[in-house]
Design a protein that fits this description.
Largest interface: A-B, 26 and 33 residues
Main location (chain A): membrane
Number of helices of chain B: 12
Strand content of chain A: under 5%
Pfam families (chain A): BPD_transp_2 (PF02653)
Keywords (chain A): Cell membrane, Membrane, Transmembrane, Transmembrane helix
Oligomer: heterodimer
Helix content of chain A: over 70%
Structural class of chain B: alpha/beta
Radius of gyration of chain B: 19 Å
CATH architecture of one domain in chain B: 3-Layer(aba) Sandwich
Number of strands of chain B: 10
CATH superfamily of one domain in chain B: P-loop containing nucleotide triphosphate hydrolases
Strand order of the largest sheet of chain B: 6-7-8-3-9-10
Largest sheet of chain A: 2 strands, antiparallel
Number of domains of chain A: 1
InterPro entries (chain A): ABC_transp_permease, ABC_transptr_urea_perm_UrtC, LivM-like
Distance between the termini of chain A: 33 Å
Number of strands of chain A: 4
Largest sheet of chain B: 6 strands, mixed
Strand content of chain B: 15-25%
Protein name (chain A): Urea ABC transporter permease subunit UrtC
Order of helices and strands of chain B: HEEEHEEHEHHHHEHEHEEHHH
Shape of chain B: globular
Structural class of chain A: mainly alpha
Number of helices of chain A: 16
Order of helices and strands of chain A: HHHHHHHEEEHHHHEHHHHH
Distance between the termini of chain B: 29 Å
CATH class of one domain in chain B: Alpha Beta
């Protein structure tokens, strides 16, 4: 009985969240609020991946904006081309350039290719990057700084390539989403539902990963990397797998963010944006199953509502909130709920025996 | 003094042959041209004063420190392999301080050691029930009653048994144990020795040890290291009779053997 609760209790919680997001929210929220919630869901998808890499894998991924951006820009490129029509060229290229389209844009005319790229591009990028990083045993603060620097480089590159990526303004003014008119409220609701459903899907994926032997191995690698070597595993491979999955999730979040927000720009993917993604995870509880997602939803909501009431001071509120939470609950707000903490054991600070 | 050279049949399949193994740290030679043949079915002991190079030798064979020479096992040169590959080849080791996963239960610790037998795809599934090799190991090391306890609450000796159990689950054919009985009570040492003899029949067991009582009771073969070199090799009786060993290791007095053992007990 107790094992059943341990195993399927989290599933029930995910199901409850699914009902809230997919049934209750569309029924009670205005289209504007629902669209905002859609954005938070996109951040939450990326946050679920961060929970896996950071909470369970111990890798402080400070540059998830890069992967969020890869997915976001891939989707946005497709939407731009869809808006431009067959043989058409995205408007900003006429505005800033000579109206010729770079060849690497061409494949994104295909919806199927775009969907493939949203998963494959971040996976390949994270695999190459992760292989280089983990095989060299780069970890801890060095890893965090390296990933953060990548986010800076990525945003700088985007800003510098105005003719190819829209530069500082990013890509915006999407009219269609795979044939559905984005100005139609019904279609907007559908796009929201897709994002919410993807969030639930990602949660189910990490639920299975956490209860799998891989999940145990990942925690073991986090806590005692050298010991894992003597179990016959290369810790680099274990971490690489978690890093790649986290990157794909961030990319999926970004891909849904573009049509929901109506824009993807360097400020959505840069170092600051990456830290916002991390912030939600830290707030909710990085090692918990639902902590990262709920934390990201809360931070997203806080961003919107605080910035509406206090346009100038809201970042101070958010900053203060983090200081308080990190001081009182270093493992996140979720850890304050004993029950949740009992379901998913957190790293213990002290040894019970010597 | 030297052991008679064993015939291939006697050696069995899982023997580890170390030839001319040398480890240098910044010009200091920690292990100096060591030749050693570790044969299946015997409990080997490596003894020697502090700094003799015992642990360094084991580190070299398990890929923790770079070394020159050869360490051949089933036609593979271990010195050219990385640690996790060496483990997968069937060489397991423990450390002086027990390094079990404190938050995982005894059962989970044993189960996680079975990862070497599983495909990456199988890793994605949750654990269901107890695999037979895990149950066997649990039984063999005598921790069946504690299977659901977190490993962090185990007594020191139990942690060492758990580590040995993990090596059993890994199916390590060669077990390199670094001071497994240090800090154990007399009864625990007895049990550990009996355990090693039990599991040693179809394995190659190498124990680094200081405790001479323990060595006397359970060693089939003893190798004495001194200053990175093999001083001598033989049965316990031969080692004790060796003037070189008495000279260098035991400080000239044969009775010293007994006293050192008594100090540790």
């Amino acid at each position: 009985m107790r094992t059943a609760v341990r195993t399927f209790g989290p599933l029930v919680a995910i199901a409850a969240l699914a009902v809230l997001l997919l049934v209750v929210a569309p029924a009670v929220l205005s289209p504007f609020r629902l669209n905002n919630l859609g954005k938070y869901c996109c951040w939450a998808i990326a946050a679920v991946g961060i929970g896996l890499a950071w909470g369970r894998g111990g890798m402080l991924v400070m540059g998830q904006g890069v992967f969020f951006g890869i997915g976001g820009y891939a989707m946005a490129m497709h939407l731009k081309l869809e808006a431009a029509g067959p043989e058409g060229v995205p408007d900003f290229m006429m505005l800033y350039g000579d109206g010729t389209m770079p060849v690497w844009w061409e494949p994104f005319r295909s919806g199927a290719f775009t969907l493939f790229a949203i998963v494959a591009l971040p996976a390949v990028a994270a695999a190459i990057l992760g292989y280089a990083i983990f095989k060299r045993r780069v970890k801890g603060a060095y890893f965090a700084i390296l990933t953060q620097a990548l986010a800076v480089v990525f945003a700088t590159l985007l800003i510098a390539t105005i003719q190819e990526t829209g530069g500082f303004n990013g890509l915006n003014q999407f009219t269609f989403f795979f044939g559905y008119n984005l100005y139609d409220p019904v279609n907007k609701k559908m796009v929201y539902s897709i994002a919410a459903a993807l969030l639930i899907g990602c949660l189910v994926v990490v639920w299975q990963l956490y209860r799998s032997r891989f999940g145990e191995l990942l925690v073991a690698t986090r806590d005692a990397e050298e010991r894992v070597r003597f179990l016959g595993h290369d810790p680099a491979n274990v971490k690489l797998a978690a890093f790649v999955i986290a990157a794909v999730m961030a990319s999926i979040g970004g891909a849904m963010f573009a049509p929901i927000a109506g824009i993807i720009s360097p400020s959505d993917v840069d170092a600051t944006a990456s830290i916002f993604l991390i912030a939600g995870v830290a707030l909710g509880g990085r090692a918990l199953l639902l902590g990262p997602a709920l934390g990201a939803l809360a931070v997203g909501y806080g961003r919107s509502s605080l910035s509406e009431s206090f346009p100038d001071q809201w970042t101070y509120f958010l900053g203060a909130l983090f200081i308080v939470v990190i001081l009182l609950f270093p493992a996140g707000l979720g850890s304050a709920f004993g029950r949740a903490a009992a379901l998913v054991p957190l790293p213990r600070r002290k040894e019970t025996t010597s | 003094m030297k052991l008679d050279h064993a015939t291939p049949d006697e050696v069995g399949l899982d023997y580890l042959e170390i030839r001319d193994l040398t480890v240098q740290f910044d010009g200091f030679t920690a292990v100096d041209a060591v030749d050693l043949t570790l044969i299946q079915g015997r409990v080997h002991f490596l003894i020697g004063p502090n700094g003799a190079g015992k642990t360094t030798l084991v580190d070299a064979v398990t890929g923790l420190v770079p070394a020159t020479g050869q360490a051949r096992y089933r036609n593979q040169n271990l010195l050219a392999m990385r640690s996790h590959r060496i483990v997968r080849a069937g060489i397991g080791r423990t450390f002086q301080t027990a390094t079990v996963f404190e938050q995982l239960s005894v059962l989970q610790n044993l189960d996680i050691a079975g990862g070497v037998h599983r495909s990456p795809f199988a890793l994605l599934r949750a654990r269901r029930g107890v695999p037979s090799y895990v149950a066997d190991a649990l039984e063999t090391v005598g921790l069946a009653d504690l299977r659901d306890k977190p490993a962090g609450v185990l007594a020191h000796g139990q942690k060492q048994w758990l580590e040995i159990g993990m090596l059993l689950v890994q199916d390590a054919k060669v077990m390199l144990l670094d001071e497994p009985v240090a800090g154990m009570s007399a009864e625990e040492r007895e049990e550990t020795g009996a355990l090693l003899q039990r599991i040693g029949k179809e394995r190659t067991i190498v124990v680094i040890e200081h405790d001479m009582d323990f060595v006397r009771s359970f060693a089939d073969v003893v190798t004495v290291l001194h200053a990175g070199k093999v001083l001598t090799e033989g049965t316990v009786a031969e080692i004790q009779a060796s003037p070189e060993v008495q000279e260098i290791y035991l400080g000239r007095i044969v009775e010293g053997v007994v006293e050192e053992g008594a100090d540790h007990a």
